[in-house]
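Translate sequence into structure tokens.
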Amino acid sequence: MKNRKYIISISVLAIFMLVFILTGCGPQELEYEQVSYADEMTENMLLGQNELDYDKYSRDFTQDMLSAVTEANFEEQIGLLEEADFSPYVEDSKEFLSAVPDNGYISVYYKIEVLQERVIEGETKSVKAAYRLKMVFEEVGREMKIAGYWYE
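Result follows.
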């Protein structure tokens, strides 16, 4: 009888530990309200990309991002996005998916739409395509800044 109570106690303790480990490990998702700053910065960057307006595009970049995407190589970078069918962005099409802390950064995921040229029944047409956009933010001097972004 004592062994059975001991085994039950150990089993219950093991279950609690497993639940604690599973819920305590890995990044916890952030609520939209915690990363609402990302919306305006992301929209502004994407519109600056569409308009080939470097100042608008890079307004919220960290210094490292400004060094990586300079005004001199901006149009080349946008050309690469267009070649890969990630541009132009459809204004106001972004939809918040999730946000997680990530090694001192905040990763915010959006679903966005872009226009792509396709030949349909012998005619070239613009069609919308959806992609996942990962925006990475870093706190710099009490302000959040764009530290990177990737189309997935």
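Note: Residues 5-24 have pLDDT under 50 and may be disordered.
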